[in-house]
Amino acid sequence: MRNFKTTALLLTVPASLVAIGLYAAPILQVLALSLTEPKLGFANYQSLFANAAVGRVVMTTLKVSVMTTVLTVLASYIVAFAIIHMSAGWRRISLFLVLVPFWISVLVRAFSWITILRRRGVLNSALMEAGVISTPLDLVYNLLGVTIGMVHYMMPFAILLLYANLSDIDRRIMQAARSLGARPATIFWRVWLPLSLPGIALATLFVFVFSLGFLVTPALLGAGKTLMIAEYISVQISSTSRWDLATSLSTMLLLVVGIIVFAAMRSPALRAAFVARPQQ
Amino acid sequence: MRLRRIIEVGLPRFVAWCLLGFLFVPILVVIPVALTDRDYLSLPQDGISMEHFAALADWSKGWLPSMLTSAGIALACAAIATALGVAFAVGAWAAGGWWPSFMRILLLSPMIVPPIIYAVGMVKLWARLSLLDSYTGVVLVHVVLALPLTVLAIGASLSNLDQRLVQAARSLGARPMTVFGKVILPNIVPGVAAGALLAFVASWDEITVTLFITGRAVVTLPRRIWTSIQDAVDPALAAIATVLLVVTVVALVARALIERRQRQQKL
């Protein structure tokens, strides 16, 4: 009896050692360094809050993350809602159109957008040949380009989350509403929307948290001109070697993400949605 | 009445298809660019050319070595992450209690914690252990990042498994390792396979942490693509993007066909 449980616990040891030694420890060291590099105390955090460049980076990050989250969740809800109302054949095609970008490397997607949006890119050339514009538009390497790329990256995640959530809603409730004389618009606002709030909250949470710490798309589509936190941290460790700044900013980012996730998990509906997800 | 129906039903559906187009169509732009007859990023001008695909196969251009590097790292990562993930998921499922639940949260946290924070930590740790820019260093980091996926995939398989199977085997006198190896493991093969595949893909695609812990010696495919995007001239970049796109589409279609066949067999 005891032998079986001991063996089972022993099986969990190797992965646990890896998680503690190669994940928890290095991250804890980042937190520790932020308080000790170069000397013990909260001096790094004081200079962090006084630093105007950091302030600008934080504002850009918040602006892009909020815009991305709002646009992604809204657009994804429209798509997921349409997909669950399609016939089986169209649904398969739509899900295919979502799954291809979902599985394609984030680098390939960023590259596609650069090809389309840059000054001599596909879109500008087409618009100029059609005579709509005479000088190329600045569509990339700015806030606009970063937001387009981020929304494109986040949408497949959000659609799949919302699709799973909307598919679980009992359709008989809508039939009941209709038989009681509710119009389609009423059914949407008073039945569909309230029932899908947990899914919307979960998608909002994921997209916002991913956006806050996202490096690849902002770095490639912002090209240093639209600087977000992750890229700013990367500059501190790879070119300027400002470990004090990198570690204290990382700690702040971790703290913010931790608080958001912790607060979200206190809501029972979100917790249920989160726990149920792996089995989809 | 008719107009109202168009606005309430037709318009949202039209917007949904436009958004699906926004997701899918921009990716296709890499195909014409890969076929350009010029030696810079552009659409084909006087005809199409396959020379940029040929460049991918040219060893000296660096694309082929990067693909092999990535494939080797991803295979090693998949093997290690799957072994660790199976052992952990099965052990946690059989034992229960606070320790496995706590470790599960820690193992899954790389999915939520921004990878840039992990990159900062690993640069420090690998610098101290002289593992920067080494295959061992990259594989170990990829294992940590792939473990959440294997643990989730195998956990999903286990949640469909009947605990009474284990009780029956034990009451018949099976030893613990026999129960794990001959009763539990054969029943979760699909989950293990899915976990291994996810681990492979996670490693094959990983860029954020790899970017900071590699240099000249270990150039994975994503790292090679990253550098190439920043230069933004070489059409071979569009050729490799096209190859990755085709592989993804083929894999998704194959999966759909296999699932359909399985459904038909069940009927």
CATH homologous superfamily heading of chain A: MetI-like
Question: In terms of quaternary structure, what is this?
Answer: heterodimer
Rg calculated over all Cα atoms of chain A: 23 Å
Total of helices of chain B: 13
Query: What is the CATH level 1 assignment of the largest domain in chain B?
Result: Mainly Alpha
Helix content of chain A: over 70%
Count the beta strands of chain B: 0
Query: How many distinct folded domains of chain A?
Result: 1
Largest sheet of chain A: none
Q: Would you report the number of β strands of chain A? A: 0
Looking at CATH, the homologous superfamily of the largest domain in chain B is: MetI-like
Second rung of CATH, namely the architecture of chain A: Orthogonal Bundle
Radius of gyration of chain B: 24 Å
CATH architecture of the largest domain in chain B: Orthogonal Bundle
Keywords:
heterodimer; A: 280 residues; mainly alpha; MetI-like fold; 79% helix; globular; disordered C terminus; B: 267 residues; 76% helix; 0% strand; MetI-like_sf (chain B); MetI-like (chain B); cell membrane (chain B); transmembrane helix (chain B); transport (chain B)
Give an overview in words.
- Chain A: One of its GO terms (cellular component) is plasma membrane.
- Chain A: Belongs to the binding-protein-dependent transport system permease family. CysTW subfamily.
- Chain A: It is a multi-pass membrane protein.
- Chain A: It is found in: Cell membrane.
- The complex is a heterodimer of chains A (about 280) and B (about 270).
- Chain A has about 280 residues and is an all-alpha fold.
- Chain A has a single domain (about 30-275), classed as MetI-like fold (Orthogonal Bundle).
- Chain A is built from 15 helices and no strands.
- Chain A has helices at about 1-10, 15-35, 45-50, 50-85, 90-105, 105-115, 120-130, 145-165, 170-180, 185-195, 195-210, 215-220, 230-240, 245-265, 270-275.
- The longest helix of chain B is centred in the first third of the chain and has 33 residues, at about 65-95.
- Chain B has 2 domains: about 1-50, no CATH class; about 65-220, MetI-like fold, CATH 1.10.3720.
- Chain B has helices at about 1-30, 30-35, 50-55, 65-95, 100-110, 115-130, 135-160, 165-170, 175-185, 190-205, 210-215, 220-230, 235-265.
- Chains A and B meet through helix 1, helix 2, helix 4, helix 5 and helix 6 of A and helix 1, helix 4, helix 5, helix 6 and helix 7 of B.
